[in-house]
Amino acid sequence: MMRLLTFDALITGGVPIIPRSLKYHKDILNIWDHCLFYDYEDIQNPLAITEKANNLFDERGTQGVLDRHTISCYNYHVDNRVETMLKAIYDEFEVEGLTVV
Predict the structure, then answer these.
(1) Is residue 94 in a domain?
(2) Report field, pTM of the whole predicted structure over 0.85
C-alpha cells in the first residue's frame, strides 16, 4: 500500500513522504531525490517534515513536478511493469519472434 501511495504522489507531481524504513527498498532507491523520509519524531510532530516537503516542492517548481511525474510514468507505471514482466517471461522461455513494445 505504501508503495502505491508513493507512486501516486510522484505521478501527480507531489513530493512523497515515506517511512525511513523503506529508504533502501529496491523500488525507492532510484527516487531518493524526489521524496522525503520520515521518522518516529515526525509522526509526533509532523509540522517540520510537512514544511520541508512544501519547501522542496516550491524550490523545484514546475520542473520538479514534471521530473517527478516523468520518473513515475516511465519507470513505475503499469505499462512499464507489464512490459518488464513480459520481457522476463520471453527471456526465460526463449520465446522468439514476439516483440515487447
Answers:
(1) no
(2) no
Tell me, yes or no, whether 95 lies in a domain: no
- Tens digits of residue pLDDT in 4-31: 678 888 888 999 999 999 999 888 888 8
| DSSP letters spanning the chain | -HHHHHHHHHHTT---EEEGGGTTSTTTGGGGGG-EEE-HHHHH-THHHHHHHHHHHHHHHHHHHHHHHHHHHHHHSHHHHHHHHHHHHHHHTT--S----
Mean pLDDT of 57-76: 89
Q: Looking at the domain assignment, is residue 92 inside a domain?
A: no
Q: How many domains does the chain have?
A: 1
Expressed as residue numbers, the domain containing 32 is 2-76
